[in-house]
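Moderator note: this is an archived Q&A kept for reference. The question asked for a predicted structure of one protein chain; the sequence and the answer are reproduced below.
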Amino acid sequence: MLEVRGLRAQYGEAVALRGVDLDVRDGEVVSIVGPNGAGKSTLVNTIAGLQRASEGRIVMDGHDVTRLPSHRVCGHGLAIVPEGRRIFPGMTVQDNLDLGAYRSEARDGHAASLARVLDLFPRLRERAGQRAGTLSGGEQQMLAIGRALMAQPRLLLMDEPSLGLAPVVVDEVFDVIRAIQSAGVSVLLVEQNAQRAFEVAGRGYLLAEGRIVQAGTSEELAANPEIRRLVLGV
């Protein structure tokens, strides 16, 4: 599904990614873990077309999307749940969800997508006419996920979905990730809470100083002494 090869990204002279290689296959959850400043957010933003790659290739289902703007990357079946949610607080919950279906292909299936999202997040149905900025942090995260799903992606990029949430809400978020996978959508998950990421992902990568330094199953990564030191604090 997704192939990333030799990916390099930088901000001016500061290099954030250095020759990153990774893959995501159909129907799987893959985690990206690493210490703060490792380049995790830059990685998902570059894949999504929000940050320009300076070298390398990003291929989705055989199509090179490396140089495409973000709206055209979305057209190839990718959607992103950005760090910090980035909902539109002055707009209603319903309007935020509708914006997720801006592509013509997604608009054609709007009603079915909306029904699936509201079944997944019943609280959004209850608050459809409410301004998004008045929602709790957990509800805003659900809205951000729901908005991305309205684009009908085959691959969902999730950047720190548990950040700043209460433990009980974090449980809900990871239940949702499992439900998304069960519905046939692959997930590339960037998550500071590595232990929770390993619980939901089948495979993962350790990113450090802009490089992939370890890759393997979640069980292998969780047992790796370097990962336990860097991201689990053991």
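Archived answer notes: The longest helix spans residues 167-182.
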